[in-house]
């Protein structure tokens, strides 16, 4: 699906299921021991429409290059572009459906957040998430931390956002069947 | 205004002017030469309501601790909390109205983004923005970069978000009256 394919027709109906899943999403809740360095998770896709870009920008980032095609054409972006915070929010939506950590996705700080290319009306976004680190917490024996790089790509395979985030991940309870409670896949010393 | 003060009554009507500006916002467009290390900008305030927290989370961060009071009470957050991406988006809204850079606020990468405390329904947020660096671009003579730390505070003075962001800032055109076109306030070597 390209920017020519009816950019206005589908404007990010987040209540609906995404239309073209890239890979099967993770369907069971993940504990620290289920994660290992180098694991890669895909995501569903999300098409962003021009009305949605303007709505988000009107509420949170009211600048001409996110709101008005003519002014955007004369700006540094050379055309209408989504707010980077909109891209970040869509990325979170895709991440919640993709990397299903037990107890939810709880951030413990970001290392990187950048937007190398603008997101344009009609773009179809998806994620590639790579596990970079997995380590038990030294202060909380019931949890650990994982560092994940989420790369948000458009339909041309171009990177529109890179986010490296540290997530809190619970360890599997000792009494859970089949668990290896205190041995994360790739432990690292603190 | 505290969380007891009608958290549901005002749910972030972003079209309206904020009700209690902390300090006068910057009203003229800023060029690189207008910025200097140590400058501090305040912002208007923004009260966030429970309905708005759930609406944003339902669209972009559909996790129980952002959507359901009872489940949130049992979560790591011990109560309903706004999505960090919602806090980031509100911060952008306040920043656009506060630090009026000529041509708009265009990010060139984040150094820090973290959420030390949850944002709760009814919280009233404001920014303190400090200029940390100002330097001319070595590759683009018409612009420079500034590093700004935006601290988002609640009504108790507690920090709910820290964002350190690098912004692209144009240099004042040579023909503009009163300008000192090529002498930024605090130039630094590359």
How would you characterize this protein structure?
2 copies of one chain form a homodimer. The model of chain A is unreliable at 1-26 and 175-190 (pLDDT under 50). Chain A has a domain at 10-49 and 81-170: Hotdog Thioesterase (Thiol Ester Dehydrase, Chain A). Chain A has helices spanning 50-60, 64-67, 69-73, 84-98, and strands spanning 40-41, 45-47, 106-114, 124-136, 143-153, 159-170. The radius of gyration of chain A is 18 Å and the shape is elongated. With 190 residues, chain A is an alpha+beta fold. In chain A, strands 1, 2, 3, 4, 5 and 6 form a 6-stranded antiparallel sheet that branches. Chain A starts with 39 loop residues before the first strand and ends in a 20-residue tail after the last strand. The first copy, chain A, has 4 helices and 6 strands; from the N terminus they run ββααααββββ. Chain A is 18% helix and 26% strand. In chain A, strand 4 and strand 5 form a beta hairpin. At the A-B interface, helix 1, helix 4 and strand 3 of A face helix 1, helix 4 and strand 3 of B.
In short:
Chain A is α+β, with helices and mostly antiparallel strands and 190 residues long.
Key words describing this protein structure:
alpha+beta; disordered C terminus; 18% helix; homodimer; 6 strands; 190 residues; 26% strand; 4 helices; six-stranded antiparallel β-sheet; Thiol Ester Dehydrase, Chain A
